[in-house]
Design goal:
Radius of gyration: 19 Å
Number of helices: 11
Pfam family, one: Mob_synth_C
Order of helices and strands: EHEHEHEHHEHEHEEEEEEHHHH
GO molecular function: 4 iron, 4 sulfur cluster binding; cyclic pyranopterin monophosphate synthase activity; GTP 3',8'-cyclase activity; GTP binding; metal ion binding
Distance between the termini: 34 Å
Strand order of the largest sheet: 7-8-9-6-5-4-3-2-1-10-11-12
Helix content: 25-40%
Largest sheet: 12 strands, mixed
EC number: 4.1.99.22
CATH superfamily: Aldolase class I
Number of strands: 12
Shape: globular
CATH topology: TIM Barrel
Strand content: 15-25%
Keywords: 4Fe-4S, GTP-binding, Iron, Iron-sulfur, Lyase, Metal-binding, Molybdenum cofactor biosynthesis, Nucleotide-binding, S-adenosyl-L-methionine
Cofactor: [4Fe-4S] cluster
């Protein structure tokens, strides 16, 4: 008998696992975590790399064919390169992608290329070193910017993820688009989301419509591109430019109807929606000795209760209080 697939009650098949390997990060971006007072998981609370591999194998057996490695910052996790090398051999897994803050070393870039990983998202919210410092609370712009071009020169497909926020980086929107004139970059502008671990979030002033209108005011002619199925971004390019840009309505959540993602946090929490509560904790069940078959059934059960969209998922979280930090959720 064939293994069942991850299909929710709305007929959406989940084929894309966002796998967080750590909640730790060497940056302190304001929209992701507080500057101080962050309670990181202890080492014993984190899934071991062997446990992460075992769970990834179970997900691939349920039809997952793409895994995105997230954090925190994945490359602060000791042993990450051997883990990715082992992960790349999983049957049924067609693609591994990585989201990083761009503090990769030259040797890590070389290792990723050898493993066969070719797509990397770099979180970069400003092209100005002072604004970068204020946003990340770290003085690392020069090294991150250099890393982007080293990745391009090494043959990687690079996306730049920029969270847009009033009084933070509006001045950077057009310079980011201009960066696509010469370079084969894919810039993605994201609405701000309520995942900094606090309770002070306000509805973002810069929605996807405002971002688009702002760009259109500088480029009267924009070419709309055909979006891949289940894409979270609406994509464009300036005619004649080498790269592209897209806008992700991450707070407006207009893409929920085709979402094919499921999320596993570094401490084992399984989420069927970024905006919803954890459905179960697979770490705890593994450590109780649950068999692969029982873990499969637990995952299938979680998917069967998946909400229609992010707003419905968020409604079920209201009683819990503040959203968790993005470094805990894994993005």
């Amino acid at each position: 008998m064939s293994t069942p697939l991850l299909i929710d009650k709305y007929g959406r098949q989940l084929t894309y696992l966002r796998l967080s390997v750590t909640d730790r990060c060497n940056f302190r971006c304001y929209y992701c975590m507080p500057e101080e007072g962050m309670d990181f998981a202890s080492r014993k609370e984190l899934l071991s790399l062997d446990e992460l591999y075992q769970l990834a194998s179970i997900f691939c057996g349920l039809g997952v064919n793409k895994i995105r490695i997230t954090g925190g910052e994945p490359f602060v996790r000791a042993g990450i390169i051997p883990f990715l090398r082992k992960l790349s051999q999983l049957p049924g897994l067609e693609e591994i992608t990585v989201t990083s803050n761009g503090t990769l070393s030259a040797s890590q870039i070389k290792d990723l290329h050898q493993i066969g990983i070719r797509k990397i998202n770099i979180s970069l919210d400003s092209l100005d070193s002072d604004r970068f410092h204020r946003i990340t609370r770290r003085d690392s712009f020069a090294s991150v910017y250099a890393c982007i071009f080293q990745l391009l020169e090494s043959g990687f497909e690079v996306k730049l993820n920029c969270v847009v926020a009033e009084n933070k980086n509006i001045q950077d929107i057009i310079p980011f688009v201009e960066l696509t004139k010469k370079y084969p970059l894919a810039v993605r502008f994201l609405e701000e989301m309520p995942f900094n671990g606090g309770t002070d979030f306000k509805v973002p002033l810069w929605s996807h419509q405002e971002i688009y209108s702002h760009i259109l005011g500088h480029y009267p002619v924009l070419e709309k591109l055909e979006n891949p199925f289940a894409s979270t971004s609406v994509n464009y390019k300036v005619p004649g430019y080498t790269g592209t840009f897209g806008i992700i309505p991450s707070y407006s959540r207009t893409f929920c109807g085709t979402c094919n993602r499921i999320r596993l946090g570094a401490t084992g929490e399984l989420r069927t929606c970024l905006y919803g509560p954890a459905a179960t904790n697979l770490r705890d069940l593994m450590r109780l000795g649950w068999t692969t078959q029982k873990l499969q059934q637990e995952i299938l059960e979680a998917v069967s209760h998946r909400k229609k969209d992010g707003f419905a998922a968020e409604a079920s979280l209201i009683q819990i209080g503040a959203h968790a930090s993005m470094s805990v959720l894994g993005g």
